[in-house]
Amino acid sequence: MAVATSSSKVLNNVEAVRDTLYEALKNDDRVVILGEDVGARGNVFLITKDFAKEFGTERIIDTPIAEASIVGIAVGMAMEGLRPIAEIQFADFIYPSFNQIVGEAAKTRYRSNGEYTCPMVIRTPYGGGVRGALSHSVSVEALFYHVPGLKIVVPSFPADVKGLLNAAIDDPDPVLFLEHKKTYRLIKGEVPDGHYVIPIGKADVKKEGSQLTVVSYGLYVHWALEAANQLESEGMSVEVIDLRSVRPMDRTLILQSVRKTRKLLVIHEDNKFGGIGAEISAMVAEEALFDLDAPIRRLAAPDVPAMGYAMPLEEAYMSSPAKMADAMRDMVKF
Amino acid sequence: MANTPTQTRKSLERHGLSDEQLKTIFRTMLLQRQLDNRGFQLNRQGKVPFALGSEGHEALQAGAAMAFARGKDILAPYYRDLGLSIGIGLTPYEIMLSIFARAADHNGGRQFPNHYSSKRAGLMSFSSILAAHIPHAVGAAYALQYRKENGRAVLVTFGDGTTSEGEWHESMNFAAVHKLPIVFLCENNQWAISTPLSLQMGQPDIYKRAEGYGMPGEQFDGFDPLATYDAVKRAMDRARNGGGPTLLEGVCYRFLAHSTDDNDLTYRTREDVDEHRKDDPLPRFENLLLDSGVITADEVAAFKKDVLRETNEATDKAEAMPFPTADDLYKHVYEGAWEPWQ
Ligand SMILES: Cc1ncc(C[n+]2csc(CCOP(=O)(O)OP(=O)(O)O)c2C)c(N)n1
Fold it and tell me: What is the 3-state secondary structure (H, E, C) of B212-256?
């Protein structure tokens, strides 16, 4: 764990979200938070605990259980000058608001020829590995990244959480901000003090390497790093890229890395079919096929609706550092 | 015994509108019908691919527009609100730009006709997705209340069929919880494309649903611009003064097919439509203004001529304008330039 300096502190991901939201509320009274149980309870993960006491229930709005209108009302607030941060309690409950995100928020700027915009954030915890069963484990990024006009951010490290959440709040367009809930308390790291932003759409090389490029995001970046370190001790060199933003996607960095290592492995928790890996693979095949020394490979969830509650079902659905290390070894040796 | 002109005028006075305002309402109704017809004509001439009609909604919309405070209130309309839109300040030229899908149209020719968006007029951008704009209106009302902008309110409109959507119910509920400055105005024209009210809902009086949410509800004759004005003005004033939301239901009828793509004789008879036409709000209001001496026959003739001229001019001017270009496709995806993967 990093040692905190005077201009930074060590936080976990959930604390990074909380600190960033708190600063945003302090700095700009156009910012309001709305969602189920965000007020008195402070959200089910206690992220907004005590916010209502400090900022009032006009800014920290406990909504009825009605996801379409949580997002739809945020769209109207944004169109009329507020900076709403809408929370969907778990990503699994985002489907009723699909139209408001995809059909309304993402199209408002375009359909009004730039006259109306939706500067808003939709935050939601997603992902598995927490025994969340069918309805508390889902990955939703692929359902939304097909949509121009919407930005999708999936940070994995506390410092990135803060920089990217700040960027999302400042952003003049709607941003879907996905927080992997297993990383909430598991992942700690140094977070600079004060306001800073990490541009949306820029990936980050979390570990440099020369024999294989691994692209991942969310919880799996941490597992991929674990696997890559394991390979390093075996004398192999793997580069790990944390995508951070799913849309816009950092095609420059991916291509640069692939042209160096000549091999690509994409790893994600979401289903393989039609997932983010499919898009990255297609892009690299179109742009850099003849720079490759091995077929592109994707390590992703099996083609089933969800991970089950029973431990063997969850384990079989999810990947692991060991499975990742196996895939990496195969690719390096190819 | 028929009323004398003085008696009719007296009955008009209770609405508190000046002669000028009464004439404005009448003129808006005439203009709405003229522009509406023009859209259908242009479609039949093969000049535009699609038009939406609002015949039968003129009284409701012109009356509601008179209760709207320009430069203050916010309108979240739906696609049948031609009269409301001109009533709050959109020009016939703007309407025609939308029908012709020209580059100078507010949304750059991107949306279907009648999907206006105008910050200047306080008209929020909206899509064709039924009820999706209703939470937006509620969010806007929340913004007004949050900023303590007293004296401002949101007017949101929709058809009867739209009240079946979940977002309508969710929005009514949230607005009532927070006592927001908003008026929900249902333009009940009895039909949702081919689906009649009786197949849309088990409760035929839409306004009665208000009670279930905890807000006042009121029904009025949507063929009468003054009854509409009264109801909308009362509700908007209540909203502007912190009295919370209201659900209003104006009962009218849709004289034309749903759009130029619809043949309404597949689900209703000509006789049925003709029967309702007997109640057409335009001649009815014209006669009222004539009988009370607010307007003269010469003035009526001049208005009609004027409205036709305005429509012709707007049509010619808009038709002569250029279409958006293929480059415009890539604008306004996000702020700034959009660099797609390809
Ligand atoms: C979500 C959604 N479902 C279906 C449609 C197709 N549609 C367009 S207009 C319409 C009827 C709407 O009826 P109503 O709300 O009564 O308004 P009216 O057109 O009669 O004024 C339908 C079903 C749509 N635009 N959006």
Answer: HHCCCEEEEECCCHHHHHHHHHHHHHHHHCCCCCEEEEEECCCCC
The single residue listed with the structure tokens 């580069």 is A239
Q: For chain A, give the number of residues.
A: 334
- HSE toward the beta carbon, residue B318, CA cutoff 13 A: 29
Q: Which distant-in-sequence residues (6+ apart) come within 8 Å of B296 by Cβ?
A: B290
Cα dihedral sign, B68-B72-B76-B81:
positive
Type of residue numbered B298: D
**Which one is predicted more confidently, B278 or B204?**
B278
Min Cα separation B318/chain A (Å): 18
**pLDDT digit string (tens) for B287-312?**
999 999 999 999 999 999 999 999 99
Residue A1: what pLDDT? 46
- Using a 6 Å cutoff on CB, does residue B130 contact ligand 1? yes
Is B79 noted as a catalytic residue in this protein? no
The whole-chain average pLDDT of chain B stands at 96
Give the torsion through C-alpha atoms of B245, B251, B256, B262, to 10 deg: 60
Strand runs labelled E in A75-184? 83-87, 121-126, 151-153, 175-180
Residue B297 identity: A
% of chain B beyond a pLDDT of 90: 94
The reply to whether residue A110 touches residue B110, judged by beta carbons under 8 angstroms, is yes
**In this complex, do A112 and B136 lie within 8 Å of one another by their Cβ atoms?**
no
Is omega for the bond preceding A248 within 30 degrees of 0, making it cis?
yes
Residues of chain A with pLDDT under 50: 1
- What is the C-alpha to C-alpha distance for residues A79 and A112, in angstroms, rounded to an integer? 11
Q: Strand, helix or coil at B163?
A: helix
Does A253 contact chain B (CB < 8 Å)? no
Asked if the model's pLDDT at residue B189 lies above 80, the reply is yes
CB-based burial, A162-174: b 16+ in 10 Å, e otherwise? bbbbbbbbbbebb
Give the separation between CA A89 and CA A74, rounded to whole angstroms: 15
pLDDT tens, residue by residue, A224-275: 999 999 999 999 999 999 999 999 999 999 999 999 999 999 999 999 999 9
Strands lying side by side in the sheet with A245-247: A60-62, A31-35, A83-87, A121-126, A175-180, A151-153, A245-247
Atom 21 in ligand 1: residue holding the nearest Cα: B159
Task: State residue B1's pLDDT score.
Answer: 53
Helices and strands in chain A: count of H runs, count of E runs: 13, 14
Q: Are the C-beta atoms of residues B142 and A138 closer than 8 Å to each other? A: no
Q: Is the CB of B193 under 6 A from ligand 1?
A: yes
E strand or H helix at B195: strand B195-196
Q: Kindly determine whether residue B333 and residue A109, on different chains, have CB atoms separated by under 8 Å.
A: yes
Residue in B267, B268, B276, B277 annotated catalytic? B267
Confidence of residue B4 (pLDDT cuts 50, 70, 90): confident
- The response to whether residue B191 sits with its C-beta less than 6 Å from ligand 1 reads yes
